[in-house]
Amino acid sequence: MATTADIKNGLCIEYNDQLFSIVSFQHVKPGKGAAFVRTKLKNIKTGKVIENTFNAGVRINTVRIERRPYQYLYKDDMGYNFMHTETFEQVAIAPEMIDNPGLLKEGNTVEINFHADTETPLTLEMPPFVELEVSYTEPGEKGNTATSTALKPATVETGAEVMVPIFINTGDIIKVDTRDNSYSERVKK
């Protein structure tokens, strides 16, 4: 058991029967009254950020979280299957735990956070960018723009749809931002 004196950014704690990561904290010692710690806590499963104030010296339950590298293998009725890159252990992850599962390509490396005591997967973090080939898009017509940032839909090799500039053609390889499913740049071959 730890106390509020042990609080630091990134520490994972159990609070109200849920797991939270400390985003920021501030020790406050007012001129009158007892000291306290003002914190911002991020729910590990939902990503929701809440504010909470702890009295100084209160005991908190710390939780050990381990980040492990996994490689995406395939999808089946159990979910998305990943293999640990060092131990070759396999784990199935539910689609709800992945932010943009449509951008997962076989062989992609991801980070999975595990609760160290129970060995249960908590979150999956994809790389910030993935390179995917455009499998289909309508040809862009020159002069068919009302603004300088004209976009058109494109289907990539994983089946996901991404909005791309009109100069992108079928067969081009593009870099896609996995955080917001947006086009980043065309990759030179």
Radius of gyration (Å): 22 Å
Mean pLDDT: 89
Q: Order the strands across the largest sheet as they lie in space.
A: 1-6-2-3-4-5
Structural class category: mainly beta
Please give the alpha-carbon distance between the first and last residues: 54 Å
Which geometry do the CA atoms define?
elongated
Strand content: over 45%
In short:
With 189 residues, the chain is mainly β.
Q: Mind explaining what this structure looks like?
A:
The chain has 189 residues and is mainly β. The protein has 3 domains: 2-62, SH3 type barrels; 65-125, OB fold (Dihydrolipoamide Acetyltransferase, E2P) (Beta Barrel), CATH 2.40.50.140; 129-187, Nucleic acid-binding proteins (OB fold (Dihydrolipoamide Acetyltransferase, E2P), Beta Barrel). 0% of the residues lie in helices and 54% in strands. The chain has no helices and 16 strands. The protein has strands at 2-3, 12-15, 18-28, 36-43, 49-55, 59-62, 65-76, 79-84, 90-93, 109-115, 120-125, 129-137, 151-156, 161-165, 173-177, 182-187. It has a 6-stranded antiparallel sheet, with no helix packed on it. It has a 5-stranded antiparallel sheet with strand order 9-8-7-10-11, with no helix packed on it. Strand 3 and strand 4 (36-43) form a beta hairpin. The chain is elongated and about 70 Å long. The mean pLDDT is 89.
